Amino acid sequence: MESPPAGCIRRASTTDIVALMQRRPRGAGEGLPWDDVRLFLALCRARHLGGAAEALGVDSSTVSRSLAAMQEVLSVTLFERGRDGIAPTEAAEELMPVAEEIEEAMARFMREAEGLEREISGLVRIACPPDLAEVIIAPLVPELRARHPALHLEIHPGETVLDLTRREADLALRTLRPARGDLVVTRLGTVRWAVVAIPEDARSLGTLRSWTDAPWVGFGERLASLAPARWLATHARGAEPVVRSDSLMLQVVLARKGVGVALVPEPSAEHYGLVPVKTSAALRAGADAWPSDELSCSW
Questions:
Q1: Predicted confidence (pLDDT) at residue 5 exceeds the cutoff of 80
Q2: What's the confidence (pLDDT) of residue 112?
Q3: What b/e string do you get for 226-250 counting C-beta neighbours within 10 Å, with b at 16 or more?
């Protein structure tokens, strides 16, 4: 490329700014990253360190240090400081339209990347309690398979919590937050529990004025530490369950058979045709709020 005639100021091009980004002056680092172009644009638009910092979500001292480092890499002064803030130099004015071109190119890149149809394939092993497998996961499988036909699922419904850190599963839906392991945990929502029965039993029981007025299906010793089990032990202590089980699915089956009332997550109760049992105002006033669990996904 020929040099411009003496005295002629040539407008910077995209090639020029890329060359600047790749240039490594003595003592410089790895060139000019995209974050510095964003910083440059924010300073040009805000004309103040504080305004640029707010636009970028950082503090003013970070902006000041980054600007000094950027000017060192480029070996050029981009802004002059004054009482009212900062003013772009002639060099900055020349680079501004090129930086805007790069900004628009990055925006187009991100839009195109977000629009790509990503193929998700391979085997994903999901661990979850049995009721979550049937109530939440199973209804989503047809749509998931339609969108990602190369995806294969292995679902492990069980009361035992599998260890993701030992690769016993890839994903886990839980109502108990993991206590250990370097995992990513996403909160999906809150699951509320309710005292439920089949519609016929709920009608025949009428309005409960004491927890002992109904036969109960309760928890075994192994799950005694769970929030719903503790709630039952505290508020329905006089109601000895006619059947105890550590399997929530078995409790649901027994409730559906009319054996007794049970404390069941509301989504599961609705899914299996169980309805809330009416309770008197005095009975509700003597008890805390219904127990609830935080549903989360871990991987």
A1: no
A2: 77
A3: bebbebbeebbeebebebbbebbbb
CATH number of 14-115: 1.10.10.10
Token pair 């609705």 in the structure block, residue: 270
Q: Is-contact 227 175, C-beta < 8 A? A: no
d(CA 64, CA 250): 64
- Per-residue pLDDT of 19-65, as tens digits, reads 444 443 433 444 568 888 999 999 999 999 999 999 899 999 999 99
The structural architecture, per CATH, of the domain 122-188 is 3-Layer(aba) Sandwich (3.40)
- Summarised one tens digit per residue, pLDDT across range 154-180 is 999 886 777 776 778 888 888 877 666
Amino acid at 250: L
**Superfamily for 190-298?**
Periplasmic binding protein-like II (3.40.190.10)
| CB within 8 Å of 253: residues ≥ 6 apart | none
277: closest CA among 201, 218, 192?
201
Query: Which residues does residue 270 pair with via DSSP β-bridges, in sequence order?
Result: none
